Amino acid sequence: MAQPAKLTHLNARGEARMVDVSPKAVTERVAVAEGRVTMAAKTLDLVLKGNAAKGDVIGVARVAGIMAAKRTHELIPLCHPLPVAQIAVEIEPERKPPGLKVRATVKVAGRTGVEMEALTAVSVACLTVYDMVKAVERGMRIESIRLIEKRGGKSGTYQAKE
User: Fold this and answer.
1) I want to staple 33 with a disulfide (CB 3.0 to 4.6 A). Which of 4, 111, 118, 155 is the partner?
2) DSSP, residue by residue, 29-96
3) Catalytic annotation on 20?
C-alpha cells in the first residue's frame, strides 16, 4: 500500500486542520490494535487471583478501554466523533515475559477509519492496569502499542507484519 504524498491534517499553509470527510462513502471500517503491560510474575499472579487492592484489574481495564474508544475525539484534537458500532477489548495473561496483552477491535459504518479509537482503547486499558497495581509494582512497562489491522475505506486493508 502506497503512503500518501502529503499529510492530510495540514492545510496549504502547513496549519493543522480537521479533514473534510463528507465526500467519502460510508463503508464498514474495522481496526485492531494491541499493546502490553509487562510486570513481575508475582504481580501478574496477584492480578489473576483478583487480589489487587483496587479490585478487578482486568474487568476495570476492559471497561476503561471501551469508554476511551468512545471518547477518542475528545482526546485527540483532529479526530472526528464517530458512532462506533462495536468495541471489544480483550486482555489475556502472558507468562514469558509475564504481563497482560491488550487487544482492541473497533468497528464503524462511517466515512473515516477507527484506527485511533482502537489505539486509544489499548492505551487507556494499559494505563488502567498500571494505575490499579502501581502500589505493588511501579516498574511495570507499557509496551508495543501498535495497529495490527485496518479494513475498509478507500485505502483498503493494512496488516502489520509480525
Assistant:
1) 118
2) EEEEEEEEEE--HHHHHHHHHT--TTS-HHHHHHHHHHHHHHTHHHHSTTPPP---SEEEEEEEEEET
3) no
Asked whether the beta carbons of 66 and 87 are under 8 A apart, the reply is yes
Q: 3-class DSSP state for residue 128?
A: helix
Among 26, 16, 30, residue whose Cα is nearest residue 150: 30
Q: What pLDDT was estimated at residue 20?
A: 78
**Residues in the chain, overall count:** 162
Task: Return the pLDDT at 120.
Answer: 98
Torsion angle of the four alpha carbons 87, 75, 140, 56, in this order, in degrees rounded to the nearest 10:
-50
Query: Does residue 142 contact residue 152 with C-beta atoms inside 8 Å?
Result: no
pTM for the model: 0.90
For the chain (length 162 residues), average pLDDT per consecutive 10? 64 79 89 98 95 92 98 94 96 97 97 95 98 97 98 91 85
Question: Which cell is 48 given?
Answer: 489473576
